[in-house]
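Would you mind writing out a protein's amino acid sequence and the numbers that encode its backbone to help me picture the idea?
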Amino acid sequence: MLYRLTQAKKKKIDPYEQLTKVFNTIPQGFPTIEDGTHLRLLEWIYEPDEAELASKLKLSGETVVKMSKRLKIPEDELAEKLELMESKGQIRVTRSSKGEIKYGLLPFVVGVYEEQIHRMDPEFAQLFEEYIQKCKGTILFSKKPAITRVVPVNSVIKTELEIHPYSQAEQMILNAKSWGIRDCICKVQQDMIGDHSCEFPERVCMLFSKSENRYEGSHQTTPITKGEALRILKESEEAGLVHTSMNVESGHTYICNCCTCCCGVLRGFVEWGQPQAFVKSDYVIDIDVDSCIGCGKCIDRCQFNALSIVGKKCVANDKCVGCGVCALVCPKDALSLVDRNSKETKKPPKNILTWMLKRALSRKVNIFKII
């Protein structure tokens, strides 16, 4: 009997099951599927030894020297493995201005999944589609605070209104020192499964950083200039894409330009009826009925079915997310963004750390073991 207990204790834990457990400890969460679809996703991304090492990393990151001592793995062997995992988009890597490199745990979403942009193939695209269709954003979209919030088109906000920093896409770009662009992984994934064709531009996901030369040598992101970033932002607005970013007050590092036919987050709201999939902007569309001619151009523009023509005039319903892209095509400038009812708005968490603590509390998970 004692021998059997000893053997049971020595039984090796499946690395993918262990990584699933760790991913679910992160505030974002990682929905599990009864048929094991989530495990097949991880098996595509990680080799068994990579999954095992990833499950032992810390969110805050560690140097190779520190990690080597903690995990009792030779430095050379560990460094080689971590560099390979970085190239595969499996872990977080930060480089300080002094050249110190730290390797850390990366959430599955937003994180590991998005970093597969350079590796994705039809098999993985279909596997991910099966995964999101089965989980429908459970955990990811059902807990507060939401991960993502809509960032409005600033040019259509009524001029007398206050615009908070977290609602200023242009300012996020201007405050950065490095800028990068990559294909939208949601559009790439949808193209690969071949179920539909998206009319929107694909190379529209922007990243930015307070550090200089952040995206030089990146496997996934192409460095661009500040001017190019501002141009892409404007072109995305004109194309009818919706700006979204992290649901925090400060410390933004990306702007996604999204469509409801591809974006996993927007699909959560439109396709799977998840009201908390993202936070609407602090604004809502307002229609000047005297100027409106009922042409319907704004209706074709809205991706959320928030507008309709009634009595030859445009009217809005409660589906409006406050993106403002509809106003850009109004020939009479009859549409603009105004303050949303204060009961419907809430100031976002101060920064990513505050967001994580609030989210962990909401999900009742203890993140201190992995920080």
Summary: Confidence is low (pLDDT under 50) at residues 1-10. The chain has two domains: 14-145+354-371, 146-348.
